[in-house]
Amino acid sequence: MTQSDGTHSGSDAGHMVNGQMVTVDGTPLKASLKRAERKRTLIAFLLVAPLLTYLLISFIFPIGQMMWRSVDNPQVVTTLPKTLEALEDWDGEGLPDEPVFEALAEELAIASANRTVGQLAVRLNYEISAARGALMRTSRSAEDFEPPYKEAFLDAHRLWNDPAFYRIIKREGNPLTASYYIAAFDGTYNEDGEVVLQDENRRIYTDLFIRTFAMSLGITLITLLLGFPISFLMASLPMRHANLLMIFVLLPFWTSLLVRTTSWIVLLQQQGVINELLIALGFIGDDGRLGMIYNMTGTIIAMTHILLPFMVLPLYSVMKTIPPSYVRAAKSLGATPWTAFWRVYVPQTLPGIGAGAVLVFIISIGYYITPALVGGQSGQMISNLIAHHMQTSLNWGLAAALGSVLLVSVLILYWVYNRLVGADSLKLG
Amino acid sequence: MAVPTYAGPLERIWYYAFRVLCGLIFFFLIAPILIMVPLSFNVEPYFTYTREMLTFNPDGFSLRWYRDLFSSESWMTSIQNSLIIGVASTLIATFLGTLAALGLSRSEMPFKGLIMGLLISPMIVPLIISAAGMFFFYSSVGLANTLPGVILAHAALGTPFVVITVTATLVGFDHSLTRASASLGAGAGRTFFKIQMPLILPGVISGGLFAFITSFDEIVIVLFLAGVEQRTIPREMWSGIREQISPTILAVASILVAFSILLLTTVEVLRRRSERLRGMSPG
To answer: What kind of fold does domain B74-277 have according to CATH?
Structure first.
């Protein structure tokens, strides 16, 4: 493979000068080969470079930038630098002294004038719920405050009488924060500034993470249960018939996600095909229509259908390579059909099961569209909450923290997948 | 896999039960897609089969929803947008992806594993995260709510498919062919276009089709990145399902099913051709 660029050097490389192999033009063969090698490496790299640059700029950098938001905390440190400096001397007990309020009055007046107070108020409101009101109201009149500033602040809003508020300002005066991650795991700071779990009825995110994982696991198991028999059947049929059956797997695979979700709405809704059919057959009454959609059941049914091809394709490609002679040998040695299947056949399908299961699991924990359309309340997954914080509540720090947790889980799973099958063997169609 | 003549009654029962079970699973896969095609011809605005439809009474059927579709300005705009975005992003993804695959499959490529991981990351990262990240970035560079913005984002999503399919066709590539061509005096460019390109072309085309369908079917990025002007077919279906579900959606869906059958057939034909060219299977 180490052939250099010209056609001549291959044949004329045999000259000896001073005991060294040289090419026709007199350079040592080793150096010449090395140069050619370098050139080829460079060419290979130049071919990859455009796409790599494109993805680094338009995809990987934006995701890094978004993840940075989960720890980025510029609001307090940029709007209240002097206040933070003055708070350095405060011991955290009782209310701070006059210099802190003097700095606050000055900086809130500036922030109000150049309209940065809004961001500060929103940021601190994540930590303590009255902060927005306190800051917005105080900052409007801060310009007219007269010394002693402390009195003026204490009169302006009740929150300024709470030492905890100053502790929060001091804590969030750090340019980096852990509070989005703490919130993402349902933690909160208690009176003493220690991290504790939220009250039971306010825990949302851990429950949702658990539910997302449980639903994904359930969907993975169902796709395995449904995918195994049909892959087995296709693997044991002659090629021509198997290819025909493959259409049943590939057509859903190629059909638009929204089309498939729509068709499940058509089938499962209250006035839908299945309910009407069951009524026509007399299984249920007109008032007993089944609620199969806009809940977790709907999400699981639709997602199972959507992800089943991702289980069947790797399973089938592994099963196709298993020689039938092993099972025959087991049977001829006296194994019952069940033993031969379970002890001899199934272990050989494990790479396919592993690949399919991890693939389906990875895809389903990040799923957004189907739960959003057919999930109702109980069928929502973590992605839906990320979208909610991105688009509705606009708490981008929390969205980024939840997204980072999801991303890390997916990357770990992908690493496992890679160890199991190798990324190169990802097959498409 | 026919029943062997020596099979006992239990095995026979099991054999037929297994076939029935598989039949049901195949039914589960295909029925939901096919069942709504006739419903798109329903004369009534219902999502269920009427008595007229079940008795094949011609009065129960109509092209009403198709007429609605083709006379609706917002649907026509979305079809146009989807095609523009799909074709443009596919061209970018196919060009960049094919180049990268050619580089990656050279044995001299350094850090192959790491680079491959980065290149296929758009396929691994959950779409909601990609969409959120791209939303911030594209907004900051002024590409949010523009057609080029959506095209560039979709191109990034499509590249992994091109890289994977083209790398796969290059795995079986016989490098002595390019050496033979070079020894016969052809330059690098001529060797590439005359020898390598025809052999990897099926991979390039099917990678391009994957990139196209990825863009054509993509909605999460569109939800975050596109404005009203850039609405695509999936975006239009999304609001149709959420706001006022009308059988027009079924008409669109039926057309898309026909479209996916077409794509599926093309990819299958290409795959077989590629395998035959590389001598991997007799058929």
So the answer is: MetI-like fold (1.10.3720)
